[in-house]
Amino acid sequence: MTENAKKFLTRLSNIFLILGIVLIFLTYYQIVFNEVKYRIDNLLKVSYTLESEGIKVEDKKSSFIDAKNIIIKPINTDFSIVIESINVSAPIISDVPIINKQDYLESLKKGVAHASFSDYPDNPVGKVYLFAHSSSNFWELGRYSSVFNLLHKLKVDSQINIFYKNKRYVYQVENIEYKKDFRVDETIYESIGPSLTLQTCHPPGTTLNRLIITSSLIKVE
Questions:
Q1: What gap in Å lies between CA 134 and CA 5, rounded to an integer?
Q2: What is the structure's pLDDT at 33?
Q3: For labeling, which of 93, 114, 124, 218 is most exposed (least CB within 10 Å)?
Q4: Range of the domain at 43
Q5: pLDDT band at residue 54, thresholds of 50, 70 and 90?
Q6: Domain of 138: which CATH number?
Q7: Pick from 29-33, 142-146, 180-184: least confident
Q8: What is d(CA 21, CA 23) in angstroms, rounded to the nearest whole number?
Q9: Which residues are within 8 A (CB) of 24 and not within 5 positions of it... i.e. 6 or more apart?
Q10: Whole-number mean pLDDT of the chain?
Q11: How many domains does the chain have?
Q12: What is the pTM assigned to this prediction?
């Protein structure tokens, strides 16, 4: 093998190595970023609080009061979700069929999906079922690919806000489960009274398990 051929192969291998590193970075950076930011916020005691001055909708998701107190604003008040403890604010896409993969993947590019078989929050005994990505493939899955990356940080008694038709429905987490597989009807209909079920994949960036969080309605404003 000539010296030029050796140099060419060396350069080619270096290019493939760099491309591999870039691909790994693009695949996992959002997951790592979310986790690191969450830990830094906890270390610095940064808090996220839902806007309490009525329900105002603005273009920006959040604004600073000061370095340690950040106001979260709902994306809209027609149908959206805000989880203060993990800094989530996203629109909810209505009536998404869970059996049609193409349809629900398209819907998940626009926000959190509301399963078509489930109820709406204004149903007095309604059982709302929402699901979303916990990934980082924004180039394939869209801007909301990482919206539930930190869902596993929720704890029993954590609160979840659902905005629907200009009202705020506040749910309190009652149960957190990790399952290899599950039947939706067994999960959503176990609770008594109006409830909210959130589902995503876990660990983030994989499809190894499903994270199921169930909560009960505690107030409507």
A1: 45
A2: 77
A3: 124
A4: 3-220
A5: very low
A6: 2.40.260.10
A7: 180-184
A8: 5
A9: none
A10: 79
A11: 1
A12: 0.79
